[in-house]
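To the team - S-adenosylmethionine complex, inputs and output below.
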Amino acid sequence: MSVVSQAKREQLEEGARTLGLDLTDAQIGQLLDYGSAILKWNKVYNLTALRDPALVITHHLLDSLAAIPALGRQQPGEGRLLDVGSGAGLPGVVIAICRPDLEVHCLDAVAKKMAFVQQMAGALRLPRLRGLHARVETLEGRYDVITSRAFASLVDFVDGSAQLLTPAGIWMAMKGKQPDEEIERLQASVDVFHVEQLIVPGLDAERCIVWMRKKQS
Ligand SMILES: C[S@@+](CC[C@H](N)C(=O)[O-])C[C@H]1O[C@@H](n2cnc3c(N)ncnc32)[C@H](O)[C@@H]1O
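Output:
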């Protein structure tokens, strides 16, 4: 853990506490190692525009961690989760660290980003994490939760992944400002059952999760 210092550990621990997360030392260590790896391998894999470790903590790690309590309320038990357009593995790798009960598949159309996620699965000893290289429209499988962060419009996210969601499954779209226009453009077959505002420690920006499911006919 060379790039991220002790000061960053404290920043992450304090942020996690503010979010009400009771993470173990091992999980904090995995998160810091992951943040360090993003910066270390950035030139090879083209993972992030950020260069400052403090910003990786707030904008990537804490921003993703802010969704963990909400995910726990919607999916308290085990299941299969797909993170679409995952890039460096956000939020999928953070979810895999915090929720070892879930099988987490990160998906991206860019092969080298998923090579990085697969590398993280080994380095961070996360046997239930996988990096999948494919376009979402062509993927096969069934998932209980499908997430995305900074991926696409809600319509494109839902249309592209509907074939992958179990009948009782839920979509978790991480967004900035509440996307009212995108919500209006969703098909009538999609039920937006909750829009949840998030506060990210150290980040002065609007964040929300749009929770959706298929309407039962
Ligand atoms: C803006 S990045 C967001 C990455 C990450 N979720 C984050 O929050 O930092 C969007 C990602 O979606 C991927 N992507 C775009 N279209 C895709 C598709 N049809 N199927 C899978 N991934 C796709 C891109 O390669 C890119 O890595």
